Amino acid sequence: MTKLLATKKAKLIPRIGRLIDLQGERIALFQLSDGRVCAIEDYCPLTQGPVLEGIVSGEYLYEPMREYKISLIDGKIQEPDEGQLRVFPVEIIDDDIYIEV
């Protein structure tokens, strides 16, 4: 895995997704209400669509088309649905956000 500079934390808006493209990977980046930053693939396996425009509540993202509940921590789609999205390790150094791809 390679750690790449994605963006500046100051450019994020809490609970609003930001699309990052690193080495051909479309990554949805979210800052949670508590300041943590999560990176998850911008693709839902159930709808075959992007998740970037979903609604964030706590540590969960509600997929925009059918509101599947997805954990931003481990990428699991919550019951009664099932599936998994890839999550990417995030490291913040000063204001720089690095993502491992």
Automatic annotation (TrEMBL):
One Pfam family hit: Rieske_2
Limits of the Rieske domain: 4-99
UniProt entry tagged with the keyword Secreted: no
GO BP field: nitrate assimilation
Keywords (A to Z) from UniProt: 2Fe-2S, Iron, Iron-sulfur, Metal-binding, Nitrate assimilation, Oxidoreductase
SUPFAM superfamilies, sorted: ISP domain
Top-level taxon in the UniProt lineage: Bacteria
The protein's name in its UniProt record: Rieske domain-containing protein
Organism field: Enterococcus avium ATCC 14025
